[in-house]
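Weekly structure sync, notes
Attendees: PL (lead), two postdocs, one rotation student
Agenda item 3: pending single-chain targets
PL asked that the sequence for the first pending target be pasted directly into the notes so everyone works from the same version. It is reproduced below exactly as submitted, 416 residues in total.
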Amino acid sequence: MKQNSILSIILLSFFLITHKIQSQAGCVNGTPNWCSGNVIKTSSRNGNGSLGNSFNLCRTGLDYVTSTRRLGQRFSPPGLIQPASFLVSGIPAGAVIEAAFLYAGTSGNGIGITAAITNPLLAVSNFPMSIIGAGNDKCWGYAGSFSYRADVTSIISGNGNYTISGLPVGATNDTDGATLLIIYSVPSGTFNGCISIDDGSIVNTSSNGTQSDLVSFTACGSTVTSLPGARAFGMFSDLQLNNSVFTFNGTIAPYSFDWWNFVEVATTVTNTQTSANFTAFYPADCVNWVAAGMYTRCSLVVTTPTLGQWGMLLFVVVMIGLSSVYLLQRQLHYAGTSSQSLGAFNFNYLAILTSIYNNRKQFVYTNIVFALSMAILFALAIQFAGYSLTEYDIPGALLLGFVLSIFISYFRNTSK
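Predicted structure, written out during the meeting:
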């Protein structure tokens, strides 16, 4: 049982390494950290009069879902009475919740807000919301306009009804509405997804006003032209007319005003594109632009493993081979059969360990020589071939050197 467990662990390691190598290949013009699925940046910036980058992520099977509700009580018809239900759907089984944010926009004086959320499993948590931007009053006679955001990842349990309360409404502070944005990934997915979000506050108070934002992003891979390929989105507070024009990445985004709007449209990006221009034209409306974002999705592309990745794969393959021979030897031993029947595949593991121990200086020296050789090779590749180190290269090279040193030491000493 113990022997089978060891072999299972080694096989699982081989699967995880090969899957990781495949999953990082979908990113085209990003850094190695971006392509391996690390969050590049999250911030609580104070975007007064601007939107600034707050979140970036690429992962295998990455996508997002949203739920948006109108909450304000100063207009007619008024929004939902809190606690308000936010229905979430579309998260597939087996998904990993990567991040979730609650966005809201208010007319008021910037009061502190703590949102209370009950998830579908009836768990309850309170989330203080950060002011991520502020501007002038949106033509209502309030003290100003404010954008809020809270990281609510910990309360997300999947699809279902999320009940939210604690957002102020009334004569002093009135919340136009809120959006629950949930970003998830499916490790077994057949595509690579990337998302970038800018947020803050750009308030328009003039007729025929035009505002803009440049969203920087990394395309996930080859050219994508439609849903569920590339999507552009924005969040707008106090939108109350249908004649505004939103152009996201060159694509006009249709909408139907609801005082608080999450506006989304399919768009086209190329695999070399690094930014998208967003514009909002308001013929006669006072609006707070709270967020803008880009999402791209592409099929995974298997790339040739790097030297370090080959090292890790070779290490796992050798370990599988040696473990398999060891298990066969043990089974033959317990069955009363000589392991000599394995022929050239019969190994005396005690002799291998003894040989390495008796020649440990030589073993260490071989490792050092190999490590220095790899360091020189990487330096030359970086300097003259434009190579960029990946997260696998250093540990992979060390593991490869370790395996080669074992075989060199063993065969050198047994041949004497």
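Discussion points:
- The radius of gyration is 29 Å.
- The chain has six helices and 17 strands.
Action: rotation student to compare against the earlier draft before next sync.
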